[in-house]
Amino acid sequence: MQHRHIMETVHRSFKDLCNSDKPFGGLTIVFSGDFQQILPVILKGCRAQVVGAYMQKSFLWNNITVLYLHQNMRLNTNVEAEANFAKWQCEVGHGKHTDEAFNISLSDQFKCRENTVSSLIDTLYPNIHIPDHSNQYFSERIILSPMNKDVNALNKIVLDRFPGPTQTFHSADFIPPSEQTGEDDPMLNYPVELLNDINGSTLPLAKLEVKAGCPMMVLKNLDQSRGVCNGSRGILTRYRNRVLEVKLITGQYAGETVFIPRVPNQPSEEENSFKFTRKQFPIRLCFAMTINKSQGQSVKHVGLDLSSSVFTHGQFYVAVSRVTSVSNIKAIWNEQQEEAITKNIVYTEILLNHN
Hints:
The chain is α+β, with helices and mostly antiparallel strands. It has helices at 4-18, 47-52, 80-93, 117-124, 135-139, 148-161, 192-197, 315-320; strands spanning 103-105, 141-145, 167-170, 172-174, 207-210, 215-218, 233-239, 243-248, 257-261, 263-265, 277-280, 283-285, 288-290, 301-306, 329-333, 341-343. Helices cover 21% and strands 19% of the residues. The protein has a five-stranded antiparallel beta sheet. The protein has a four-stranded parallel beta sheet with strand order 13-2-14-15. A three-stranded antiparallel beta sheet has the order 4-11-10.
C-alpha cells in the first residue's frame, strides 16, 4: 500500500494538466489493493500515524466507488479443505479468531516436526545439502519472517547447508563528497567498520556471502525492460568481482540470464541519520524474505518463522495468504511458549464491511 499523499499529488497534477476541478482532472483512475494487507510503512510511527497515511483518510475517498473481488485465485476452493482455509484467511484478516491482546492460535496443520528453525528448514528445503536443484525447486518455496535480522540469520543458516564453496563480496562504504564540508569535517571520522554495520531494508549487506546455484533477490530497479526489478528472484550461476550472472526464476522473464554489476546504494533519510554510499551488488540471499517483501507473490511451499511476532496491521494475514494450498504451509513460533500462539495485529478502523 502507498501513502495517500502520493495519490493526492497525482490528483493535483492531473487537475492542472486537464485544467479541471474534478477529481484527477475528470479522468477515470483505478486503484487496487486489499485493506487487510500491510498499510503504508511509517518508520517508528504509531498506530494513528499509520492509519492516517491510508487512502481512506484522504479527501479523495468520498469520490471513490469500491468494487469487490470475491474469488480466491490462489486456492482451489472447489476442495472443501481449501475453501475452509480461504474462509479462515479472510476471517483472520478481519481480526477474528484473535483475542484482545492480538493473540491467535495456530492449528496443527501449521506445525513442523519440532518447533525449531532447523525443523522448519528441513521441511521447506528438503535435501538442500544435495547439489544441482532445479530452478523450480527454489521458485516454489520461501520462508517468511517479520524482521530483517531474522531473515538474514535464516539465509545464513540455509547457505551453510547449501553445497559448494562460499564466496564473500565486501562492499566499499564511504561518505560521498557532497556530504563533506572540508578536511576537518567530523563526518570524515566515521570508521568504515561503523558504516559496514549499518543495515536497512533497501541496502545490500556490507559482507555478502554467496554460493553458485543459490537463490538471490534483486533490491532495486536495474533494467525493467529485462525483468531486473526490485523483488525479482533468480539463481546465481556465475560470479566475478565486478559482475554476477543470474538466471531469473520468477515473472514473465523467468529463464532469462541477466548480469548484475556493483552499483552505489544509499539508505533513505528515514533509515539512517546521515548519508553514505555503499558500493555493492544490489542483491540478497533469498532462501527467506520479509513478510512485507512477499506481498503480491504466490508460492507453492511457505514456511513462517514467527519466533519474532508480527508487529503491524496485516502482516499475519499476508504471511498465511501467500501459499497455494493449505497442506503446504508450516510455521514455528516463540520457543518459550508451549502452545502454538502468535500475534495477529488488525486495525479494524480501516477495514471495509461487506458480504
